[in-house]
Amino acid sequence: MPTKVFIDGKIVDRQDATISVFDRGFLYGDSVYEVLRTSGGRPVDLAPHLERLSRSGDAVFITTPASDVIRRHLAAVLAAAGNEDSYIRIVVTRGSSEIGLDMGLAGTSSLIVIVKPLTLPPAELYHSGAELRIVGVQVTPKVAMDPSVKSGNYLSNIMALREAKQQGAHEALRLNKEGFVAEGASSNVFVSRKGKVVTPPKSAGLLPGITRMRIMQIAKSLNIEVTEQPLHPDDVRGADEIFITSSIRGLLPITKVDGSLVADGKVGTVTRALLEGYNNYLKLVATHD
Ligand code: PDD
Questions:
Q1: What domain count does the chain have?
Q2: pTM here?
Q3: I need a surface site. Which of 24, 67, 84, 90 has the fewest CB within 10 A?
Q4: What value does the mean pLDDT take over residues 56-69?
């Protein structure tokens, strides 16, 4: 099952996919990116991912290629890889430059498309649920860096995940500086109480996930009420059900927070209905253009 990469205008194997040490993506995380998966070989929600990439680029003045250009290269990489299903990472770096923070030093931006075989979290995690740990590493305030920009600078997220992993948890839950719940290290969070689902609003300081948006749509179609409301850590600890969302995980049930069971510790009915709804959506993507 091969990994193929589009870099420097051509498609190469994993071992030949190398980048200059003067690339600002390498030097500073000076890049924007998207991660998505295929279902039945077809990219899931490619249009909103490409829109977000373009918005991220605009926000930090990185020129991203036109959507149809990215689509063309992506189709070629997917065909070259020939995987049943793939993980896709689309990266645009500000390009190479003399070392220095000034973005005026940079040449032209560079597009990299990584396609590798899709590996999902173990099936057992979807069945029994994963653990979340509320960590001390907070989300970056919007005034420092807008969290809706999906930039390649992930050191804070990496530190948050380390804190969670050290306690044996699958994912970190990060708060904002006001102490309200924002998001995971690489996921959005939802809680359910008395059958009603709540997720933090964008103003809490989060990346508005594409999977988050899909789950909200699916919930609506299933007559499950979802609202965006500020969440306190106690709302999470006292929830009936919790789940996280991201493009690779889809919807992942959470049955433990900070070492304690969520309600009875079993995956609840609302979570199960939405998980099934999302899996049906993936099946639909696999069979429709
Ligand atoms: N990350 N919040 C953060 C900080 C993320 O990095 C991600 C996804 C999400 C969920 O967004 P989406 O549903 O669009 O994937 C929320 C990807 C999967 C990653 O970096 O691997």
A1: 2
A2: 0.97
A3: 84
A4: 98
